[in-house]
Specification:
heterodimer, A: mainly alpha, 11 helices, globular, B: Rossmann fold, 3-stranded antiparallel beta sheet
């Protein structure tokens, strides 16, 4: 009971959760300044902060962040919207489920990045190819989460709606969509994570701009401090989009406990 | 067997039946499908509170689902006042978690396309009569189990259907909450005199609430007997037990339940 009360206070959870990362950073700093580790590959956190500051002031890092964010967001929306729609429809309609499920399951197991050469052939190098890669990964995750969400909607709720004379449209709007929403949202969070992995990987291999390219280029020229700056920035971007999704979920589903 | 009480009824109360069920049977589909309901015959007097009791698995819930049109029967026929659709309170927690108490209560009116203002007024009125006026904007997870059941009951009353069917709406509640909500349900019903079909497995509850009690046998469920509850109204859980004839009525229903189990 005590524990429960403690963990309801967001501030306390945050501060408790910060203990371990801060301790690790401190250990890293001490290890670097005492040359226990090779500072060429593992520069001290304070060096990385300096480096980050430098890149922020010359503006290039922000530009790369914006490029990556734009690709991620576009790919996410282009993948998630049809993913949710097809998933919900397939979850409600056994015929469509039977039609789509085998193909979707087959494509789902193909590692996303393995398709990059094919996509580059189809779209040629450029943003459409990169955005498509993200959308493709996001689509399947949201499709499957929406499908199982719609299938798992509480039958009792559907029965009640029907007992009040609800038609198909009423049931979809007042039961299937809100009943699926929590699962759809957790699918979206996972999909956003995968989307970020995909866009960074694609930028490693097939891009001159964006955070992936930023990291890869610094790695190739042994500018490890800058490489870490890129990694930190990607992490911040990841945290930002995750928090934004959580915020959207809280605002859209106020009925969740 | 159903005619046991019906023959003793006055001509006046015999005049109108809100629900009539004739030879209703239901066999679940598939080879060797289980026979769930076997030749059910029932007459539910208009404006009465009619309890149905029976051993678990006797098809009580299934019978209600047939009457609400959720499950098709295999044979037989039934009619409901004005060809209307009964309002339904299913077993367990049935509130929509994504709607506030008020919107839950107003749900049936929303389906009917009633304007927002009218929905809100009706919901507020019902919530107030159940002592939930301060919880109109709460979501179900913010309410206690007892409050949620009251919301589910209010939701059924809100549509002003001529017939209400309730499937053990209070069975999940603790004893004290249950008799409290029983009292509120009785009050709500006394004010409206809607026909209620009320499934329960609790003899005390049936004797507290109902005008008639129909006992179903073990699966496949068929009607063993319908008994008129001899206690005048108003009633409450507490005072019904002190009425003359209570012990006999209880014993009789218990005997029928036992008999139904072994038949």
């Amino acid at each position: 009971m005590n524990l429960q009360i403690d963990f309801r206070s967001t501030g306390r959870v945050l501060s408790l959760g910060l203990v371990l990362p801060l301790a690790l950073l401190l250990l890293w700093e001490v290890a670097a300044t005492n040359n226990w580790i090779d500072t060429l590959f593992y520069p001290a956190p304070t060096t990385i902060v300096d480096n980050l500051w430098g890149h922020l002031s010359d503006g290039r890092l922000l530009e790369d962040s914006q490029v990556t964010f734009k690709r991620l967001l576009l790919g996410f929306v282009l993948g998630a919207v049809p993913g949710i729609l097809f998933g919900l429809v397939a979850g409600m309609t056994p015929l469509i489920r039977a039609l789509l499920y085998p193909l979707a399951s087959g494509l789902y197991v193909v590692p996303r990045i393995a398709l990059l050469p094919l996509v580059l052939v189809a779209f040629s190098i450029g943003d459409p190819a990169r955005i498509f890669m993200v959308a493709f990964g996001v689509f399947f995750l949201t499709f499957f989460s929406a499908l199982s969400a719609a299938e798992q909607v509480d039958r009792t709720h559907v029965d009640i709606a029907r007992s009040f004379g609800a038609n198909y449209q009423h049931v979809v709007r007042s039961v299937i969509v809100p009943g699926s929403a929590p699962t759809v949202f957790s699918g979206l969070r996972v999909a956003m994570g995968v989307g970020l992995i995909v866009i960074i990987s694609v930028e490693f291999l097939a891009s001159n701009d964006g955070l992936g390219a930023f990291i890869w280029r610094r790695y190739q020229i042994f500018d490890f401090a800058s490489m870490y700056t890129g990694i930190v920035t990607v992490t911040v971007l990841g945290v930002f989009v995750t928090v934004a999704l959580l915020g959207a979920e809280k605002a859209l589903l106020p009925w969740r406990r | 067997m159903t005619t046991f009480v019906r023959d003793q009824l006055t001509a006046e109360s015999r005049a109108a039946n809100a629900v009539e069920v004739r030879g209703l049977s239901l066999r679940y589909p598939g080879s060797g499908g289980v026979l769930a309901l076997d030749d059910i015959n029932l007459e539910i007097v208009e404006g009465s509170f009619h309890a149905i009791i029976g051993p678990s698995g006797c098809g009580k819930s299934t019978l209600l689902k047939v009457l609400t049109g959720l499950v098709p029967a295999t044979a037989g026929e039934w009619s409901i006042a004005d060809g209307s659709r009964p309002a339904y309170v299913p077993q367990g927690n049935s509130c929509f978690p994504w709607l506030t108490a008020e919107d839950n209560v107003a749900y049936g009116l929303w389906v009917k396309g009633k304007p927002k203002r009218q929905r809100r007024e009706a919901a507020r009125r019902l919530l107030a009569s159940l002592g939930l006026q301060d919880f109109a904007r709460c979501y179900p997870h913010q309410l206690s189990e007892g409050m949620r059941q009251r919301v589910a009951i209010a939701r059924a009353f809100a549509v002003d259907a001529p017939v209400l069917v309730m499937d053990e709406p209070l069975s999940a509640l603790d004893f004290q909450t249950r008799i409290h909500v029983q009292g509120e349900l009785l009050q709500l019903w006394m004010d409206r005199r809607t026909t209620v079909i009320y499934v329960t497995h609790d003899i005390d509850e049936a004797l507290t609430l109902a005008d008639y009690v129909t006992v179903l046998s073990e699966r496949p469920g068929h009607v063993l007997q319908t008994m008129e509850v001899p206690f005048s109204r108003p009633r409450s859980y507490r005072d019904v037990r002190n009425r003359p004839g209570y012990t006999e009525a209880f014993a009789r229903l218990l005997y029928l339940l036992e008999e139904g189990r072994h038949s």
